[in-house]
Amino acid sequence: MLTVRDLAISYATRNDKVLQNVTFHLEPGQIGCILGPSGCGKTTLLRAIAGFIQPLAGEIELDGKVVSSSNAMLPPNQRNIGMVFQDFALFPHMTVAENIAFGLRAMNHSESAARVDELLALVELSTYKDVYPHALSGGQQQRVALARALAPKPKLVLLDEPFSNLDSALREQLAQDVRGMLKAAGATAIMVTHDQHEAFAMADQVAVLQDAKMQQVGTPYELYHQPQTTFVAGFIGEGVMLEAKLNASGRLETVIGDFDAEHATYCDGAQAAKGQTLQLLVRPDDIVHDDSSRFKAIVVNRHFRGASILYYLTISESDDDQCHPLLCLAPSHHDHQVGESFGIRLDMDHLILFPQ
Ligand SMILES: Nc1ncnc2c1ncn2[C@@H]1O[C@H](COP(=O)(O)OP(=O)(O)OP(=O)(O)O)[C@@H](O)[C@H]1O
């Protein structure tokens, strides 16, 4: 449905590239997310897909047709793309139904009214049909903006930080709701965000951008458990880098046991050379609370999260040895206070190693 190939973009006022060699692909019906820190080029990429910025190099293909390249540009209004903006951009003088019908002017009245009713049902706002935007909550306004974008059955829906003006506690739930609505409409969509929780709740595929370059494209699971760069490992999810030495028998020695390194993944230039000291990515859910373990860690801090507690731990091989920080996500019935110690063991499916 959408292919972005080796895209490079620069602004006239700058010498450097704001995007460089950006490549990713979305299948019909998939929801993609462009995730990255402020200034990495997310909005620029979205605007390029919408047709507002011409690439310096590379191309954008929509539904099998090149719509943007350095020598050809299909105008934005001919791309059949729907947009949901950060501030929702609803027309204040129009009712909910009139806002949704805005893009349906080519249809006759009864067709348009039927489509509006269909979308009102999809976004669960049928009873708000004749209400004006100022009388809606932020979340309801956003659903109207989504319905308006979906109304003309666009090939692609672009959502630019759609949750940033909403209560942070609700964002993850809203992201899941919007995902459900996009899936029910069979839409292909791309959202831009700097919030990984929103990206995980919403996307089938997440593209991580940093400093103008695509770092990694993958499912939320792949980005969390199999990051390919230290940036992605640090930007996505919590975790620590634990010193790990590859011994002569091909096992990784760590302060919390040793492991067969046969299926380990070496990233960012890490070498699988015997005797090498590396960094092992350890997520909080890789550390299991186990009182029968010979490895004991001390609680230095804790965050109660309801069903679980995130423990900040330190562990050392002996009393005078260096302390290694660890995170452990344990079910909250394992209730330990700061200063206490408990047994832990490492339970990992993926050994991801980075250079020291
Ligand atoms: N019209 C412009 N002219 C020149 N430089 C621009 C223009 N728009 C954006 N930039 C620059 O391009 C880079 C990428 O900006 P962009 O808005 O795409 O980033 P972003 O990842 O969306 O950031 P944020 O999350 O803060 O919105 C930034 O360094 C920004 O200053």
Automatic annotation (TrEMBL):
PROSITE patterns: ABC_TRANSPORTER_1, ABC_TRANSPORTER_2. Keywords: ATP-binding, Cell membrane, Ion transport, Iron, Iron transport, Membrane, Nucleotide-binding, Transport. One of its GO terms (molecular function) is ATP binding. CDD domains: ABC_Carb_Solutes_like. Residues 4-236 form the ABC transporter domain. It comes from the Bacteria. The keyword Oxidoreductase does not apply. The keyword Iron applies. InterPro entries: AAA+_ATPase, ABC_SmlMolc_Importer, ABC_transporter-like_ATP-bd, ABC_transporter-like_CS, ABC_transpr_FbpC, Mo/tungstate-bd_C_term_dom, P-loop_NTPase, Transp-assoc_OB_typ2. This is ABC transporter ATP-binding protein. It comes from Alteromonas arenosi.
